[in-house]
Structures are given as C-alpha cells and as structure tokens.
Amino acid sequence: MSQNLGRTYRNILQELNIIMELGDGNLQEHLSKGPMAFGDILDFVQQMVDVMEYLYKEKIIHRDIKPANILLKNGLYKLCDFGLVSLQVTIMDSL
Per-residue confidence at 67, pLDDT binned at 50, 70, 90? Predict the structure, then answer.
C-alpha cells in the first residue's frame, strides 16, 4: 500500500468503512497561502505519481482528485476522500 493514501479500514462484517486521517491541512489551504517552492512542487509530483501508480495497479479510479482531497501530514501528501471511487473491471478480469 502506498504511504500517500489515506487509510481505510474494514470492520468485522467486512463492510468497507472509510475513515479519513487527520492531517495538518490540505493542499487547497496550503496553496491559498501562496505559491509552493520548486522543491516542494517536485516532492508533491513524485508522491502523487507514486500514489497514482499504486491506484492504477490496483485498478482503482478515484474520480475526485482535487487539492481539497490531498491532505498534508508530516511532510507527506496523502490522497483521501474515496467516496466516488470505482473499481475498473474488464470482461477478462471476470473470466
């Protein structure tokens, strides 16, 4: 699992419950304070590439990526809010 994803937990009944982590703020709030430094932009892009690669491998489509859904926590950018997520399933996967 990518360290740049908000955590999800399953309960005893095996139902998916999404519990968002508490961060230090989100990217939208961070950007409202002014532009990011070049090094911070590179760090952000690398972390988001890592998380997108993980989601792609797991066939997960987030469908609501925006600055408000990217939390900052201890120097990490974490993609959260999976309320609109869908699983990408093809005919070949079901065979």
Answer: very high
3 state SS of 38: helix
The amino acid that residue 68 corresponds to is: A
Indicate if the pLDDT at residue 90 is higher than 60: no
* CB contact at 8 A, 86 and 61: yes
The active-site residue, picked from 43, 64, 81, 93, is: 64
- Our answer to whether residue 50 is catalytic in this structure is no
Q: How many residues are there in the chain?
A: 95
Output phi, psi for 60, to 5 deg: -110, 130
- C-alpha distances in angstroms, 52 versus 3, 5, 58, 71? 12, 10, 10, 15
Q: Express each pLDDT in 18-47 by its tens digit.
A: 566 778 899 999 999 999 999 999 999 999
How many whole angstroms separate alpha carbon 49 and alpha carbon 91? Answer: 27
> In CATH, what class is 8-94?
mainly alpha
**3-state class of 70 per DSSP?**
strand
